[in-house]
Specification:
Belongs to the PC-esterase family. TBL subfamily. It contains seven helices and 13 strands. The chain has 362 residues and is an alpha/beta fold. Helix 2 crosses helix 7 and helix 4 packs parallel to helix 5.
Length: 362
C-alpha cells in the first residue's frame, strides 16, 4: 500500500475471519467494555473491517508492530476513550506476548520484553491545565480549564515518548470554567451572570484546547516523536443524552452508505479539532511530526459497536425507562472489546509503517 492511499474514505465490509482476540483471551478489558462477558446476545458487530476505497488495510500483525516499535514507547494520552484504545492495543499484542506491568500512580505502563516496547497510558481529561482552586469569581470545586496552557504533568513526560496518540473532546460536555489570559471567558453548565454574554462556549473551548496542546508538542525543545491526533470519537445516543435516557439498544450491524444521519454536534466538534490541528501545524518548530487520524465520519456508521445496556454483568439489563421515568444506564460512547475500536489500532499501525518504513506498507 502506498502513502497516497486515503485511509479514511471507504466502507465497512463483512469479515468472516472475526476479531483479533476474544473477551476470553485478553485479561485487561475493562468490565464496561466486555460486551460478550456482560451478556450481549449478538456477536456479528465483531465481524466487520474497514476497507478504504483505494487500498486494503491488512489485519494487525502484532509481531510486525513490536518489531517496528523496537526499543520505543507508545503513549495513549487523554480521556476514557484513550483508555479504551490502549486496552485494545494491549489485547492485540497480548496474543503473542504477555507484557510486564510496570505501572505506577502517574501512568499505566506495560513492557513487552521481546522488543523492549513500552505501552503507556496517561489520564488527562482535557489535555490542558486544570485546577479546582477558586479563581476570581469561580468558587472552589468547579474545574477550571486554562485553555492556553497545556497539562503540566503531561508535558513532563512527553520527551520520553516516541509515538503519542491523543484523545479528547467528550469532557467538554461536563461542568467547567474556561480561562484565557488569566480571565474567565466562559463555562459549561456554569455561568453565574446570565446578563453577561460568554466569550467562549464549550465547542470553541475544545478547539482552543486542541491548538494549545498540539502547539506545545510541536514546539517542545526536546520532543521528536510522532503525534497521532485521533479525531473526535462519535457517540450514538438516541432519544436523549447519556444522562437523559439515550440508548443504542438493538443496533447489530453498521449503518449502510446512505443511512447515516449526520450528528451536528459531532461534526462541529470535529471541525473545531481540525482547525486547532491546522493552526498548530502552522506553528510547528521542532522535529516532531503531527498526523491527524480522521476516524470521525468512518465511525459514525458504527452505531452497533457500543456496549449499550451490556455495560455490566448484571443479568437484568435495563433497556427502557423505568416506571419512575429513570433512564436506562447505557453506554453508547465507549466501544465493545473486541469491536470497531480495534480498527483504530490498525490505522495507528499503518501510520507508523508510513513513518518508519519510508512510505509504503505491505
Amino acid at each position: 500500500m502506498t502513502r497516497s492511499c486515503d485511509l479514511y474514505h471507504g466502507n465497512w465490509i463483512h469479515d468472516p475471519l472475526g476479531p483479533l482476540y476474544t473477551n476470553n483471551t485478553c485479561p485487561v478489558i475493562t468490565q464496561m467494555q466486555n460486551c460478550q462477558g456482560n451478556g450481549r446476545p449478538d456477536q456479528d458487530y465483531e465481524n466487520w473491517r474497514w476497507k478504504p476505497f483505494q487500498c486494503d488495510i491488512p489485519r494487525f500483525d502484532p509481531r510486525k508492530f513490536l518489531e517496528l516499535m523496537r526499543g520505543k514507547t507508545l503513549a495513549f494520552i487523554g480521556d476514557s476513550v484513550a483508555r479504551n484504545q490502549m486496552e485494545s492495543m494491549l489485547c492485540i499484542l497480548w496474543q503473542v506476548e504477555t507484557p510486564k506491568n510496570r505501572g505506577n500512580r502517574n501512568m499505566q505502563r506495560y513492557y513487552f520484553r521481546s522488543a523492549s516496547v513500552m505501552i503507556v497510558r496517561i489520564w488527562s481529561s482535557w489535555l490542558v491545565k486544570q485546577t479546582s482552586e477558586p479563581f476570581d469569581y469561580a468558587p472552589a470545586g468547579v474545574d477550571k480549564l486554562h485553555l492556553d496552557a497545556p497539562d503540566t504533568k503531561l508535558m513532563e513526560y512527553i520527551p520520553n515518548f516516541d509515538v503519542v496518540v491523543l484523545s479528547s473532546g467528550h469532557w467538554f460536555a461536563k461542568q467547567s470554567v474556561y480561562i484565557l489570559n488569566n480571565e474567565i471567558v466562559g463555562g459549561q453548565l456554569w455561568w453565574p451572570d446570565k446578563s453577561k454574554q460568554m466569550k467562549v462556549n464549550n465547542i470553541q473551548a475544545y478547539g482552543i484546547s486542541v491548538e494549545t496542546i498540539l502547539t506545545a508538542l510541536a514546539k517542545h525543545p526536546t520532543y521528536k516523536g510522532l503525534t497521532i491526533v485521533r479525531s473526535y470519537s462519535p457517540d450514538h445516543y438516541e432519544g436523549g443524552a447519556w444522562n437523559t435516557g439515550g440508548s443504542c439498544t438493538g443496533k447489530v450491524k453498521p449503518l449502510a452508505l446512505g443511512e447515516l444521519v449526520e450528528n451536528e454536534y459531532t461534526n462541529t466538534m470535529h471541525e473545531q479539532q481540525v482547525t486547532g490541528f491546522n493552526r498548530a501545524m502552522e506553528k510547528a518548530t521542532n522535529q516532531s511530526k503531527l498526523k491527524l487520524m480522521d476516524i470521525t465520519k468512518v465511525f459514525q456508521y458504527r452505531h452497533d459497536g457500543h456496549p449499550g445496556p451490556y455495560r455490566s454483568p448484571d443479568p437484568n439489563k435495563i433497556t427502557k425507562r423505568g416506571p419512575d421515568g429513570r433512564p436506562p444506564p447505557q453506554d453508547c460512547l465507549h466501544w465493545c472489546m473486541p469491536g470497531p475500536v480495534d480498527t483504530w489500532n490498525e490505522l495507528v499501525l499503518e501510520i507508523i509503517k508510513r513513518e518508519y518504513e519510508g512510505g509504503s506498507a505491505s
